[in-house]
Write a structure and sequence with these properties.
The chain has 13 helices and 15 strands. It is α+β, with helices and mostly antiparallel strands and 521 residues long. The protein has 3 domains: 158 residues; 125 residues, Helix Hairpins (Orthogonal Bundle), CATH 1.10.287; 153 residues, Histidine kinase-like ATPase, C-terminal domain (Heat Shock Protein 90), CATH 3.30.565.10. The strands form 3 sheets. Strands 9, 10, 11, 12, 13, 14 and 15 form a 7-stranded mixed β-sheet that branches. It has a 6-stranded antiparallel β-sheet with strand order 2-1-8-7-6-5, sandwiched between helices. Strands 3-4 form a two-stranded antiparallel sheet. Strand 5 and strand 6 form a beta hairpin. The protein is rod-shaped, with a radius of gyration of 63 Å.
Length: 521
């Protein structure tokens, strides 16, 4: 089962929080007392150094008010008590007393003059303290614990005063001027405080862990919610669904990630669209290549078939001449030669048309658009074919006189008209006439039609007559030297012009037509 990052985040942070609280409790329980004690010892060491420096600054340092003030400030700042003892006194009764250089009583007379009065054992210093100090120097105390020793200078003790139930950290030793020094700092019962603090920390820590756990659940939800949203968007992107976008307004890293995913989604969508388009074009190119290959195969087959008959005839009649058939018959020899010449002409004509068609279909023959009179062009083509029409006993009807100007490649359109008229003359039957007409259309086009009387074209053949080498009446086509390429040339020319063309059956015959754009300027 997939684990949620929300649960992981909550558990990890809660464990870290608990670990920190436990470490704090352990430190408070086992290290606080030693740390506190070491801090007190360090404080006494620093105080001793300061007092020693002040006491040895001059021979009569403790008669100087400035020195006294500095020691007092030192006591107040470090929260310690300093005692500097110059000598030990014993009275007549054998009682021991200490003669203090510091602390010292400061007196001021009526004129404002200041004098210092050294204290004896009965002033400011309690008898118990004097006994303890005296014992610390010379006897030692059973209720003291030695903490640190600086040989030749001082010792530091931890002292428990049972009378007042208090702990102290005391420094007892000698200054550099051989004065005795006693420095005391109160030492609270930190062990009991540490136990109380540890208990309190355990309670507070448990509460903090619970509150932190609840807070982490809420916080992690606010963090994981956009992450889950981004994960959902990513899953949809993986399924190529790019409609869903990140709509959050966050300005942090998750917001930046959301914007990056949106950008990635757009780029992926565009890239995939381009790839699909390229794939479609590739499939189209492959299909076109296959089609071209098929056309080439068909073309080679058709050319081979079309050339087979004239080549066979030429070969046969040439061999007959070579073998001197009808040696004495001049007419027969001339007939053989005429057949060879006629077949050669047909082959040459077919090759020319194939080359022309190839140039048009593959774009080698570029359009040379110009403005010309289509009526005059048709009249010229019809006049050039008048002899062929008379030989076939076909009457060409063309009554247009007003010029009609169009935009097209004149030489190519002449090829179209020539093919239409040639086919119309050779296929004319019955009344045997060919009618050429013009019809102007509303879309600024003119339709040129070539109609010939005769049989209709079968519906099954109408779509195929534009295909290379396709022949409706193969015998008749062969009779007049046709090869099924003329209408293919018409198709290629009109498609290159991006103009319409076609054929229609009528009761009395067939009409072939094409359209061109007019120019009325």
């Amino acid at each position: 089962m997939r684990k949620s990052i929300r649960i992981k985040l909550t558990v990890i942070v809660s464990l870290l929080l608990a670990a920190m609280i436990v470490l704090s409790w352990l430190a408070n329980r086992f290290l606080l007392v030693d740390y506190y004690q070491n801090r007190k010892v360090k404080l006494l060491n620093e105080t001793y150094s300061s007092v020693n420096e002040l006491a040895t600054a001059s021979e009569d340092a403790f008669s100087d008010s400035e020195t006294i003030n500095k020691i007092e400030r030192l006591e107040a700042g470090d929260n310690v008590n300093v005692y500097v003892i110059s000598e030990i006194k014993v009275d007549l009764l054998g009682r021991t007393g200490l003669y203090y250089v510091y602390p010292i009583q400061v007196n001021m007379n009526e004129s404002g003059e200041i004098s210092f009065v050294r204290n004896d054992k009965y002033k400011r210093i309690t008898a118990a303290l004097q006994r303890y100090i005296f014992g610390a120097f010379f006897r030692g105390e059973s209720n003291t614990t030695l903490l640190e020793t600086v040989e030749g200078s001082y010792d530091v003790y931890k002292f428990y005063d049972a009378e007042v139930d208090s702990f102290y950290i005391d420094l007892v030793g000698y200054l550099d001027n051989d004065y005795l020094v006693f420095i005391r700092s109160s030492f609270e019962n930190i062990e009991e405080s540490a136990r109380i603090a540890s208990s309190f920390l355990a309670i507070v820590g448990s509460a903090i862990i619970i509150i932190g756990l609840l807070a982490m659940i809420f916080i992690s939800r606010s963090v994981t919610k956009p992450i889950l949203e981004l994960a959902d968007i990513s899953d949809k992107m993986a399924s190529l669904d790019f409609d869903t976008k990140y709509s959050g307004k966050r300005k942090d890293e998750l917001g930046r990630l959301g914007k990056s995913i949106n950008t990635l989604s757009d780029k992926l969508e565009n890239t995939i669209t381009e790839l699909k388009t390229a794939n479609i074009e590739l499939e189209r190119d492959i299909a076109h290549k296959i089609e071209i290959d098929e056309m080439r195969k068909e073309f080679l087959s058709n050319v081979s078939h079309e050339l087979k008959t004239p080549i066979a005839l030429i070969q046969g009649y040439a061999e007959g001449l070579q073998d001197n058939i009808n040696d004495d018959d001049v007419e027969s020899r001339n007939f053989y030669c005429d057949v060879i010449i006629d077949e050669s002409r047909k082959m040459n004509n077919m090759v020319k048309k194939l080359l022309s068609l190839n140039e048009i279909e593959f774009g080698s023959n570029k359009l040379d658009l110009e403005r010309f009179d289509i009526v005059e062009l048709v009249r010229t083509v019809a006049s050039s074919m008048d002899l062929i029409a008379k030989t076939a006993e076909v009457n060409i009807v063309f009554n247009e006189h007003e010029p009609v100007y169009v935009w097209a490649d004149e030489s190519m359109i002449e090829e179209v008209v020539t093919n239409y008229l040639s086919n119309a003359i050779h296929y004319a039957q019955g009344q045997k006439f060919v009618d050429i007409s013009f019809k102007e259309k509303d879309d600024n086009k003119v339709r040129i039609s070539v109609f010939n009387t005769g049989s209709n074209i079968a519906e099954a053949d109408i779509e195929n007559i534009w295909v290379k080498f396709y022949k409706v009446d193969k015998a008749r086509t062969r009779e007049y030297g046709g090869n099924g390429i003329g209408l293919s040339i018409v198709k290629a020319i009109m498609e290159q012009h991006n103009e319409k063309y076609g054929v229609e059956n009528h009761l009395a015959g067939v009409e072939f037509w094409f359209e061109l754009s007019k120019n009325d300027v």
